[in-house]
Amino acid sequence: MNTELLIMAAGIGSRYGGGIKQLESVDSAGHIIIDYSIHDAIEAGFSKIVFIIRKDIEADFREIIGSRVEPVCAAHGVEVGYAFQSGDAIPAGFSVPEGRTKPWGTGQAVLAAKNLITGPFAVINADDYYGKTAFKILHDWLSVPRRPTEYSLAGFILKNTLSENGGVTRGICSVDAEGYLTDVRETKNILKTADGASVDGVPIDADSHVSMNMWGLMPEFIELLEAGFETFFREAVPQDPMKAEYLLPIYIGQLLREGKISVKVLETRDSWFGVTYKEDKPAVVASFKKLIDSGVYRQDLYSDL
Q1: Which side of the chain, N or C, has fewer Cβ within a 10 Å radius?
Q2: Domain containing 278: what range?
Q3: What is the number of H-type helices and E-type strands within the chain?
């Protein structure tokens, strides 16, 4: 069964204070974090990659990333597509609140790619490194026929996702005895401590499963997501028109509580890393160097595919 990967990259420019040229390389060959995700997705067996970007960064994105990875993907029979997230792509009958410039969040980002989704698909953030294991287990899970409401989540271990340079927000997962997600709680300002982790000075279990926004979904999920987006505009936007966001983990958590879906947690013990803070950059570069030196990746990244 063909599997597809959506890479949410529409927030890149704004997050880093300008165009994506400010996403500096993370290794001596000039690769950025997205390159490693693409490498791992191809290696795992994904047959299609869709970049979700904004129209105003398209030229830079294609120059910096697309021109490099499209030939690699073509050489391995992997299709590449582009979808565009726009602030005015909202449900019929509603209007964008006056003065609203903030994007509508990861739920709307996935909806931007709805016309390109043809089968089971995974969703990831563009600026996170997830590790090879997560792509492999997610691809293998998606490759087996599933019910339309049966989904999965790459479950990282909290202690493997923390920053040395400040607090982070993570989706803390509750998992039942069969390995299914029962709840996911967005938890802010999780700090790394000598003993593990804490929130507001209160210790929390550093071995908890957390969501890093790496989901395995069925194409029928798009219908639910569209319905949820309409409800979001009807109920949430009027309450906070300037800041309300339609976030993927929040909506999936809502569907879970309503008993409409199931989510299998696929554990990975790989270390996540990303540039949450500018101070994280040296550690990220050092981490990729270690992976290359230990043979996990080659200096010429795509040469082992």
Answers
A1: N
A2: 4-154+211-246+272-304
A3: 9, 13
